[in-house]
Design goal:
The complex is a heterodimer of chains A (about 260) and B (about 300). Chain A is α/β, with parallel strands linked by helices and about 260 residues long. Chain A has 3 domains: about 80 residues, Translation factors (Elongation Factor Tu (Ef-tu), domain 3, Beta Barrel), CATH 2.40.30.10; about 120 residues, Nucleotide-binding domain of ferredoxin-NADP reductase (FNR) module (Rossmann fold, 3-Layer(aba) Sandwich), CATH 3.40.50.80; about 55 residues, no CATH class. In chain A, the strands form 3 sheets. A 7-stranded mixed β-sheet of chain A has the order 10-9-8-7-11-12-13, with helices on both faces. In chain A, helix 2 packs parallel to helix 3. The longest helix of chain A is centred in the middle third of the chain and has 13 residues. In chain B, strand 9, helix 6 and strand 10 form a beta-alpha-beta unit. Chain B has a single domain, classed as TIM Barrel, CATH 3.20.20.70. With about 300 residues, chain B is an alpha/beta fold. The chains are: A alpha/beta (about 260), B alpha/beta (about 300). Chains A and B meet through strand 4 and strand 6 of A and helix 1 and strand 5 of B.
Amino acid sequence: MMPINARITKIVDETPSTKTFFLDLTLDSKSGQFVMAWIRGVDEIPMSLSYPNAITVQKVGDATSALFKLKKGDSIGVRGPIGNGFTLSGKSILLIAGGVGAAPLAPLAEAARDEKIRVKTLLGAKTGDELLFVKRFRGAGEIQTATDDGSKGHKGPVTGLLDELDLQDYDQIYSCGPEKMMGKVLEMAKDENMVPKTQFSLQRYIKCGMGICGTCCIDPSGLRVCVDGPVFSGDILVDSEFGRYARDASGRKMKL
Amino acid sequence: MDLTIDLSGLKLKNPTILAAGILGTSAASLKRVAQHGAGAVVTKSIGASPREGHPGPVLVKTERGFLNAMGLPNPSYHEFVRELETVKGDVPVIASIFGSNAKEFEEVALGLSKARPDAFELNLSCPHAKGYGATLGTDPLKVKEIIKSVKSVVDVPVWAKLPPVANIVELGLAAQEGGADAVVVINTIPAMGIDIESGCPILGNKVGGLSGAAIKPVALRCVYELCATLSIDVIGVGGISTWKDAVEFIMAGASAVEIGSAVHDDINVFRNVSKGITQFLEKRQCSLEDIRGVAQK
């Protein structure tokens, strides 16, 4: 598909490092799907949809820095929605979000609430003011927070909150965030025989977003994160590269 | 129905091959394509040093085909040799390589030889990486020199992937004289698109190459003319997505076909093409050899 022109209608400062860009374009999308956002003259990058008409972006590199300079009324190119997205199931679900990984999980929490599914969210960030979409998660159910510096909620990684929970209370577990964190969630699910009931959203270098170039393929399945994912069941990720390494833009393996 | 072919000394269970640059960065991905029915797989083009490739968009689907300018991203042979070692097994694996001159091609071929690829495919045709690909591949003297160099350091078949040019036969003859065991035609056709909202070229690199159904007639003409003149195998690539496309190329004289962009619609394309060819041959009660090159008569 060709990029569609999308005008920025509103920019919301969510945290010191993240902004939400609302667009004049509402995509018929599912939580967990993403778009390729083209910042003209700079680059095209994969971005999670945090609303059907918005992306929430953390400033990490050239393209996101260029995006942060755009103002209301400016436009970007958008291809999407792309990928499979999360599958809602069960009556009670647990969401585990880290940092900007909260972006695709917030619409999932709201979709679950609308379907009368009980939602509990564990939300982590480096600091209290980096906790993303606290209100949205609270509006969808129960929330517990964790911060690396202890400025809000539990001090330490968000997975520390899992020690106090019985995973068996949940029909499905969803996670998005730093991969080390998600790897830990998968480990804990393994101990509880819950692996088939987990869904993880992966971040990989995505270039074509059409399942052609192969940049985002994961080991050992060879599945493409862009079109076969970005959401994978824990079954597929057990004993894979998940939590251990990923490939950079050239295809070299990088330890996580 | 037996679709087995002997291709420049390699035994393939069917004549469909994964084209270079498609799903070929990792061993896992290449294996997955083999499991989906490809008779052989070609890796992403590998060079002497790591390259990140061009900025995005690197690939867009237009109404008339795919435009791409990936920019030869690759981890370098130093890193890829380990990946290549683990692909071996199911089907022949062909290492696609590129360089800026004969020496560099040699260096990469030698570096990857440790992983024992079944053949090498020399990228003499990428249209959008300055100093590489078609920059060299449109010059018959360079084509001959590079193939000769690589042939002198490897002991497996060497294929030359050539760009779509008007005088394709001249390039093909140069490749054959250089000692190529097969030629592969064509690569993408130099092309571009413009985003009319902004006036920006649609590809990050501004210009790139066109692939997909739109280029099939161009590829077919190249295959047809090369098959009429060369004695080595000709492998057709460009816009093949159905068994009918593949049969056309075989009737033009192609020994095999490579498939690339069509994985977008269905990664099972290899199996489907083989199945279609089988049914076509069964209906006619003939073999692959019987239809090969019939258009030349």
